[in-house]
Amino acid sequence: MGLSTLAVVQSSARQLFPSLELDQVLAELLLERAQKNLIKYRTMAHQFEAKYNQDFETFRQVILRSEPAFEAEQDYFDWEMAVTGIADMEEEIGRLKDVIQLS
Fold it and tell me: Of 94, 79, 76, 78, which Cα lies nearest the Cα of 35?
């Protein structure tokens, strides 16, 4: 980040978050992004649950014991990504909330 870029970022941070230090602003913005990602992954998981009328673990067992059609196999990988994303984002949100509370 160049000096002028840093100056713009600092100025924007003061304007948008007047009561926070730059590191606190960054933590708040990262928390917001993690929460948005969590919503996205949960939405994906709910769509697959509705489509297959079962939870991921049940679907996973069916897929692993069969030779699934291409669409089901693709859905498995996408659903697995969503489930992993949910866990990752929940962990990230917890860490960021801890950082924010300590500030």
Answer: 94
Element (H, E) at 4: helix 3-16
CB atoms within 10 A of CB 92: 17
Write out residues in the chain with pLDDT < 50, as ranges.
none
Q: Which residue has the tokens 């969590």?
A: 38
Domain total of the chain: 1
Rounded to two decimals, the pTM is 0.88
**CA dihedral sign of residues 42, 34, 85, 58:** negative
* The residue to which tokens 């990504």 are assigned: 81
Which range of residues forms the domain containing residue 62?
Answer: 18-102
Q: Which DSSP category does 20 fall into?
A: S
Residues near 97 by Cβ (< 8 Å), separated by ≥ 6? 31
Cα 14 to Cα 17, 31, 61, 74, 76: the distances in Å are 5, 18, 52, 45, 45
